[in-house]
Structures
1.
Amino acid sequence: MRHYWKILVYLFKQNFIRDLQFRSDFWLSVLTQLSWFGMQVLLFRLFYNQTAAINGWDFYQAIVLLGVFTLLEMVLFTFFMHNLSRMPYYISDGGLDFLLLKPVDAQFFVSFRYLSTNSIFQILPALLLLFIGLRELGVSPSGGQILLFALAALSSLVILYSLWFITVISLFWINKVFEIHELFLSLFHFVKYPANVYQGAVRQFFSFVFPILFTITVPAQIVLNRLENIRTLLALPFIAVVTLLAARLIWRAGLRRYASASS
Amino acid sequence: MSTIIEVKNLTKTFDYYRKAPGLFGSLRGLFSREKQFVDAVKKISFTVAEGELVGFIGPNGAGKTTTLKILSGILYPTNGYVKILGFTPWERKAEYLRQISLVMGNKEQLWWDLPAIDSFLLNQKIYDIPEQQFKRNVELLSEMLQIKDILNVQVRKLSLGQRMKAELVLALLHDPKVLFLDEPTIGLDVVSQKNIREFLRRYNKENKTTIILTSHYMEDIKELAERIITIDHGQIIYDGRLDELIKQYVREKTLKIFMSKEVPLEKIALFGKVEYYDKDYVELIVPRERASKTTQEILSAFPVDDLLVEEVEIEEVVRLIFEKGRKVV
């Protein structure tokens, strides 16, 4: 475990040094994030110009929800954006060769090799949203709530990572699709809205097939002190374990199929 | 010497889909495809002893790289048994991977955006190399390969030769017991090729590292490998000493004779098969085992200015083997 921690710390350092070399890349990503963030807030504002609440969520609660979404997205992007988007190169073009050669767990290495340290700055808009939302609502979460929030958020991150990972390693079985990681990212955007807006088949899909339904809503409900159903909270760590296990098994099966690329 | 690599009946079959040519074929391929199988490696068996340097030769697509990738744990075989240092490679136990290394001439593992030394440091963390050993190896290897002054330069700014040398250092930092080299000199200029060859020979001698090497440059094989394994269409067609191979395949030698005076053709034809005749210059083909005796006889019988005995080039030998495509062992 300490071995992996040491590697991760070093990878972080190395990627940070690497990202610092590309200043224009850094500023561009700040600019992109800011404009993206502005658009989101604007969109929410437009919704709420029409109505005071959407399925029981008022504007500032929705802002907190967006804050949680932005926070988790930040963590996901920092760690996995540059790694999982590489999967077509790894699997279809034989890039896995050298990764498989290392005496560390290959899934670990594939997932954490290239960190996107630029994405960390997205924590600022995330905290800003949480701060404004909670202040306007007059809610201040207790230490216990924050701890519970952290645990729920961690489970959510595991779920989101596992599903993203499973999506991209499908390349072991299908022909090269360059933008396969976009598939996950487009589905991911569904969860920045409250879980209860989804009904029927869509709800079933996001609960069982691609179980991301509660990943943002439940952590948000914890800090907002409006958790309605304890079962949704308990479901999170359970789904996390199941999806991570599935990711692991599918990865191992995939490695057996890995054909590298001829020289 | 103890056996370090044992391979028995190793087979690897790849499946792929055949696509009919053209747009129509591609469209039809969206709905129905024909699955095809190809044997990259067919039931090959061999063993390698500790400290041996074995050369793998064969034409493109013969199965050399596939074999190396199975031995280094990257690919699962379809069938067969492999034990290296007591491990089954494709189980990819950390304990095994720590003791081997693979260098591929056409693939880089150095990180382009950073200096080579940063990739070295990452490997130090991954292989858990003690500080002292790490420092010693970086020092020693970069000294031997003469790249000490470029370790702090961004990899993207290095020449191909410098990058290859840095790749070698990277691959050897953890003192592997078994080293797989897949075309380590591909695309390099003659000087760099020679440097790397000399380095490998010295490294193999000093460290007793077991090495399997593939190369398309026969010079590499001739200089480095005492034993060669020849693969074609996924099968081993020769396994043995390089000079034995030459002896088996090349039954003749060519004598190039420069005469000081014109010698009649019919006289010289008594000594062998005349390949070329031009009054005072003759090329004569004689059986290998009689070459030295014939040389003496010609020297005493004719006014000879100069005489050269030529071996067939190893490239030629290999071409012969692959053309005949038959088993010699």
2.
Amino acid sequence: MDASIDELLARGEKRIGPPVLTALASDDPDEKPFLLEALAAAAALFLFEYFCGAYLDGLGLGEAAERHGRASRKLLARLRGGRGKAPTSEEKRHLAEGIEEIRRAPASEVAPEQAEAAVRDVLIESGVGRARAEDLARDIATLVVPEHDG
Amino acid sequence: MDEIEALPLHRWLCACRQLMAREPDWGADQFAVYLRLGSPRLHLGWNRLLDKASPHTPPSYVYIAEDEGLTSPALPPDVDPASVPTAPDPTPAAETALWRQTRDLAGQVASLKLTDYPPARVEKIMASIDETVHATLDDAIAATKELGRTCLRRLVEAREGSRNRQLLIGDFLQPTRDVLAAYMSFEVDGRSACEALAFVLSIQCNLPQLGPLETTPPDARARAIEHLIDQADELLIARERANVTPYFELTYAANLLVATAVQLNSHQRELVPEYEGRSHLNRRVHYGEELIGHGTAAAFALPAAVEPLEMARLVRDRAKDRGESALDYARTVVVHPAFQGALLEAADSDALDAASALERYQRAASTAESVDALALINQKAGPVAEENAKEMHMHLLAFSMG
């Protein structure tokens, strides 16, 4: 499981890019950190967790949705506190469980759209341009649910 | 024609963009940094940066470490300001390698007698850049003010022309497009263009008075900032499918849009310090600055400086020095996708000569789309946020009906 999650995170990381990373990791609006490449894995993990939380919520799986929502809030706080670090095995296992749950669930029309929109909105709220936020949210959705075509 | 079809044209246009994207001294300084000419202005640790073009602007501070960095308007409390060196002013552009290169390349382009760039057009562009390169600070400020006054006159004309119920909303939106077009054709540099554009985008939102800046509704200014960042983002996404000229034009245009957003945000911070959405706007602007820092800043220097084969080998060698893949480093220095595809791997082949490398690049680029950069920006209301344009329309209508 870890190997495929590592691969997923690496793919997510590649799609994020430094401007999005800075937007996600900026805490003080008067200060602009740069060269944050070390945080990319943490940012990818956050986006996948956030997607999972919203997707599971769309499936009506409240408890699981809350679990992943909580994990994503913690990750965002860590990112914005400048404490981005490589995801731990436990965090990766947690994400893998969420993805497993999504892939096992019956097909849903609502959940993928809701999750993609949630990722887009959190990116825009972080400062990312609308077009790139939409692209990246679609990429995250496709990585988690490969048959998802937006 | 796509500029890569005539290599001296491509290199010359990139040199012009490098000089004019912000202002010539800065462009020439960045060129020296990317080409590793001379010693760097910034040292490891904290550096104080002064903006000599805006003497009243407080200094900013840049922290440089081996693998990270930070820009900040203030020093941390534990750093003694006296210990922080002030970065020296950049060498005047007129005395730099970039300016010499630009003039040499202009001569080469003129001698080609291209249909799209006949000698008279090349001469006109060079005369405009020459004036900007040699302008004193006072000249530059005066030129910016004149550009602003011209735009204001045209806004007033459009407003007055609308008195007889003939709504001149197109004329009212036109000055922003004209500033953009003047920047794209190297008539004004990015610093003047962004100040003029920020000025017009602000006073347009206060009809019928048209200014002063203090009277611009803060929400309208916020919408203008958000729109400019979104538009810059869209241009940088669109460039990925474009052939060489639009790729570099979209890159160059995005630079102006973000600089204008930065300028407007600085008005907002100064004029409405307690604005509720301030933190969000700062985030948007930081994001825009990062787009420019990572997506445009390095784009013009290498193509202006060296031919494609030499550039491919330089990218390969620097990537090796940094322990990165050539592709990763190519992204850092923002090379055209066709260049990536055609030359990065081929650069290792000793059999490849300069002419065949160029041919490979041209062939790969010819399959990309030809996008009209200005038309793309000017879709809908152009640099004006759609909601602001709608409000202008309504206010102009009310004005026209007395």
